[in-house]
């Protein structure tokens, strides 16, 4: 016998078979499910309205029915094109159980290794090169019985299935699907590395940051554009901001923040802590942050192997840097990669 609850049942079946989908497609599926139930029995009372209020009410009803299963039909705004995307999310933090149905244990282990290198990437670049991704096979050879050719196939599978993005430069980053479906795992495992947008408060791996040292303002590109139309200063430190994300005055978050040599050394939790301590001690002067991309590429750390007889030269350099900072109207210095 057909009843109103069949709309939710049909809708959930359609969702589970598709993975992640756009908001427009999700709304179309909802409408088709309503039409299917009414076609089966025209006397069934099913409410439908093409309004945001009705859509929100329907989603709330769907999630109420999923509570006992620890699932949620959740949305996220794509960091690249700003479209709203929906997916069924496992709310439990259970070691990437969300991908366990598609991949075997060793493949999940490799995926976790890639995620770690992305989340621990220097300078908030949140990406990893192809070579660095393949290097994880050797790093985990005691646990992962994979060849590099097998790893290449796996990387292609992760991209094809929407878990990773691969840029034109051949760098891998987390997709909207990963950020949405694996958010509990990412939050619990990389709570110190994960950053959120100052405007929408969703997880951020691609966007812009305020140029002022120690300012915590971070925004998606689309959030920056919407905010900049209303205000011209940073919402955290009130520094004057440029009109466009490509203008000098902002720092990149994501692949554009990568510097030469950042992928040269594999990062671990211990190395991250060590690097952060060094960066807090060795911030570059403002003259090194005048151009947008070289802001970070020129901001190399002073090597630990400096001899003591170079101390006088370093003190002179620091004095010059201080003089330059005082001469400028704003003193942006490269921030630490950890907040």
How are the SSEs ordered, and which strands pair?
Elements: H1 6-16, E1 21-22, H2 23-40, H3 52-66, E2 71-77, E3 84-90, H4 105-119, E4 128-129, H5 130-139, H6 148-160, E5 164-166, E6 171-174, H7 176-181, H8 183-189, E7 195-196, E8 203-204, E9 207-210, E10 218-219, H9 221-228, E11 250-253, H10 269-281, H11 294-297, H12 311-327
Antiparallel strand pairs: 1-3, 2-3, 4-6, 5-6, 7-8, 9-10, 9-11
Helix pairs in contact: 1-2, 4-5, 5-6
Question: CATH superfamily assignment of the largest domain?
Answer: Zinc/RING finger domain, C3HC4 (zinc finger)
Helix-strand makeup class: alpha+beta
Straight-line distance between termini: 57 Å
The order of strands across the largest sheet is 1-3-2
The largest pleated sheet is described as: 3 strands, antiparallel
What is the second-level CATH architecture of the largest domain? Answer: 2-Layer Sandwich
* Sequence stretches where pLDDT stays below 50 over 5 or more residues: 279-310, 312-316, 321-339
Question: Could you say what the CATH topology of the largest domain is called?
Answer: Herpes Virus-1
Rg calculated over all Cα atoms: 24 Å
What are the secondary-structure elements, in order, as H or E? HEHHEEHEHHEEHHEEEEHEHHH
Task: Please count the beta strands (DSSP E, at least 2 residues each).
Answer: 11
- What would you call the shape? globular
CATH class of the largest domain: Alpha Beta
Number of helices: 12
Strand content: 5-15%
Give the count of structural domains: 3
Oligomer: single chain
User: Which whole number gives the mean pLDDT?
Assistant: 79
Helix-residue proportion: 40-55%
């Amino acid at each position: 016998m057909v009843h109103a609850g069949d709309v939710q049942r049909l809708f959930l079946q359609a969702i589970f078979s598709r993975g992640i989908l756009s908001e427009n497609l999700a709304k179309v599926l909802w409408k088709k499910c309503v039409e299917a139930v009414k076609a089966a029995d025209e006397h069934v009372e099913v409410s439908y309205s093409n309004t945001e209020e009705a859509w929100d009410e329907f989603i709330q009803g769907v999630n109420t029915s999923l509570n006992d299963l620890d699932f949620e039909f959740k949305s996220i705004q794509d960091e690249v094109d700003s479209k709203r995307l929906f997916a069924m999310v496992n709310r439990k933090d259970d070691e990437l159980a969300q991908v366990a149905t598609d991949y075997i244990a060793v493949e999940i282990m490799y995926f976790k290794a890639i995620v770690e290198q992305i989340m621990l990437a220097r300078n908030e670049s949140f990406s990893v090169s192809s070579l660095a991704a393949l290097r994880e096979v050797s790093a985990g050879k005691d646990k992962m019985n994979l060849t590099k050719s097998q790893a290449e196939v796996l990387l292609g599978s992760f991209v094809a299935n929407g878990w990773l993005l691969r840029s034109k430069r051949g760098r891998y980053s987390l997709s909207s699907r990963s950020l949405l479906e694996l958010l509990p795992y990412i939050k619990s495992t990389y709570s110190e590395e994960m950053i959120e947008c100052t405007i929408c408060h969703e997880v951020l791996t691609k966007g812009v940051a305020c140029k002022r040292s120690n300012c915590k303002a971070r925004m998606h590109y689309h959030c920056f554009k919407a905010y900049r139309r209303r205000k011209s200063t940073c919402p955290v430190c009130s520094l004057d901001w440029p009109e466009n994300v490509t203008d000098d005055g902002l720092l990149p978050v994501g692949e554009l923040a990568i510097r030469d040599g950042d992928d040269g050394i594999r990062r671990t939790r211990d190395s991250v802590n060590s690097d952060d301590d060094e960066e807090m001690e060795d911030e570059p002067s403002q003259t090194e942050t005048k151009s947008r991309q070289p802001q970070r590429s020129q901001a190399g750390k002073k090597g630990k192997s400096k001899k003591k007889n170079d101390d006088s030269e370093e003190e002179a350099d620091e004095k010059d840097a201080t003089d330059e900072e005082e001469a400028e109207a704003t003193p942006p210095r490269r921030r630490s990669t950890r907040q």
